[in-house]
Write a structure and sequence with these properties.
Order of helices and strands: HEHEHHHEH
CATH class: Alpha Beta
Structural class: mainly alpha
Largest sheet: 3 strands, parallel
CATH superfamily: Ribonuclease Inhibitor
CATH architecture: Alpha-Beta Horseshoe
Distance between the termini: 20 Å
Strand order of the largest sheet: 1-2-3
C-alpha cells in the first residue's frame, strides 16, 4: 500500500479485514494523508506483523504515540491476541507485538516522539531493525 495516498475511510476498510488474514508485512510508506486514527488501526495489527514500513508519512509525535505508545499495550491489543483484557497491563510487550523490522524514518518526530520510541524499545526484545 506504499504511496497510495489513501484516506482514513479506505484505509480503515482495508485494515479491518487484515486481522483475519495472515498478513505479516505491511508497507504504508509515503501515505501523508493518514491520521492518528489510521495509526491506531495499525497498532491493532502489531501482534501479527513482523515488518512495518511507515517511512515518509510525516506522522509526527501524535502518530507515533498512536502506533507505539501506551495504548498499544492495552486492552485492544490484548483482545487482538485473544488474551484476557483485564490482565493486559501486566503482559510483556513481546506478547503484544512480533515486529522484527520497523521503519519510521522521515516522520518529523520531535523529542516527544523520540521518547515514545525509546519507551517502546525498552519494552521490546524482538525488534531487530529500526
Amino acid at each position: 500500500m506504499m504511496d497510495t495516498l489513501l484516506v482514513d475511510n479506505s484505509f480503515r476498510m482495508i485494515l479491518n479485514a487484515a486481522p483475519r488474514s495472515k498478513l505479516v508485512s505491511l508497507d504504508i510508506s509515503r501515505n501523508e494523508n493518514l491520521t492518528v486514527a489510521s495509526y491506531e488501526l495499525v497498532a491493532r495489527l502489531l501482534p501479527q506483523l513482523r515488518y512495518l514500513n511507515c517511512e515518509a508519512n510525516y506522522m509526527g509525535d501524535l502518530g507515533i504515540k498512536a502506533l507505539l505508545g501506551p495504548a498499544t499495550s492495552g486492552q485492544e491489543l490484548a483482545q487482538s491476541v485473544r488474551l484476557d483484557p483485564s490482565n493486559s497491563t501486566r503482559l510483556p510487550v513481546d506478547l503484544l507485538h512480533s515486529l522484527k523490522v520497523l521503519n519510521i524514518s522521515k516522520n518529523k518526530l520531535t523529542d516527544v516522539g523520540g521518547a515514545v520510541v525509546a519507551k517502546f524499545l525498552e519494552r521490546s526484545t524482538k525488534l531487530e531493525t529500526l
